[in-house]
Amino acid sequence: MQIQQAINTACSSLGLDRRDAQLLLLHALDRPLVDRAWLIAHDTDALATTAELRYIELARRRASGTPLPYLTGKIEFHGMPLQVDGRVLIPRPDTETLVDWALECLPDTNPSDGRPRQIMDLGTGSGAVALALARFLVQTGRSGDVHALDVSPDALALAQANAERLDLRVQFMLGAWLTGITARYDLIVSNPPYIAEGDPHLAALGHEPRLALISGPDGLDAIRTIIRQAPDNLREGGWLLLEHGWDQALAVRELLARAGLVEVQSRRDLAGIERCSGGRWPG
Q1: What is the DSSP letter of 88?
Q2: What pLDDT does 116 receive?
Q3: DSSP state of 214
Q4: Whole-angstrom distance, CA of residue 77 vs CA of residue 166
């Protein structure tokens, strides 16, 4: 079977999006996923039998609903190539809103007392947010220690592998939110589970870990816990920033204000949805 024929067959017989079909074939051929132009230039090349069989299996899994990043094992987040698999939630572009806001909360100059900034990413998953913050510190020459916590040992193993591959220093920790943490931070960020039990959208997320998705009857259980715990772990003037669902901004702002945080506000994602909310501990 020729390359172009294989792509056309996957699209027509399995209903795959053409881009997905191309990326899966590149993966089956062990070529970089940015090489779509190569496929066009070699559209009449014959596929080796092993590559063809591998491609057919990948295409069938994609047609059955397996997310593309789980099949290729790769995704880009905030300009970084990350490895992902079924142990972690797939990083979404929406979460880049959280990272961009967090970067704004890091002063342009190093602290006058000489201490490094202390940053915590709760529920780190693949390590996407923590690694983006660590990379920013390296690129800008700012001092800082980035900690990343998750309740899943499997997720932490993947996050650690991403950190090693990107040569970024992050201290990974096993735990449930801030329980047992005594350190104080200048910045605490989190993209916690925030989907309500029984939400109809869960059906489309069946391949991703439920632990990283569902958080109680209204989706706010994890966020309530983090906000309740955060005042004991924020330095004066420190920020707490949280990603949440499309319709949860008002509820999260109220929780933040009741916990004593000030300058409570929300940020919108590229779709114009209030995607993140946060506040600053007084001082």
Answers
A1: S
A2: 84
A3: B
A4: 13
pLDDT at 111: 62
Place of tokens 């998705």: 213
Distance separating alpha carbons of residues 160 and 148, to the nearest angstrom: 10
Distance (Å, rounded) from C-alpha 13 to C-alpha 198? Answer: 33
Residues β-bridged to residue 242 = 190, 277
| Residue ranges in the chain assigned as alpha helix (H) | 3-14, 18-28, 36-41, 49-63, 68-72, 96-104, 128-140, 153-166, 221-229, 249-258
Q: For 176-228, what is each residue's pLDDT tens digit?
A: 999 999 999 999 999 999 998 888 878 878 788 888 888 899 999 999 999 99
Region of 106 (left: φ > 0; alpha: ψ -120 to 50; beta: rest) is: beta
Determine the Cα–Cα distance for residues 280 and 229; give it in Å rounded to an integer.
14
Which residues touch 40 (CB under 8 Å, ≥6 apart)?
Answer: none
CA angle, residues 190, 196, 197, in degrees to nearest 5: 130
The low-confidence residues of the chain, meaning pLDDT below 70, are 108-114
- Whether residue 241 contacts residue 209, with contact meaning beta carbons closer than 8 Å, is answered with no
**Closest to 123 (Cα-Cα) out of 152, 92, 166:** 152
Q: How high is the pLDDT of residue 36?
A: 87
Cα–Cα distance list, 7 to 16, 73, 127 (Å): 9, 20, 33
Distance CA 204, CA 226 (A): 27
Q: Which residue has the tokens 């099949």?
A: 71
The three-class DSSP label of residue 274 is strand
Is the four-CA dihedral 230, 231, 232, 234 of positive or negative sign? positive
Token pair for 251:
């509820």
DSSP H or E stretch at residue 129: helix 128-140
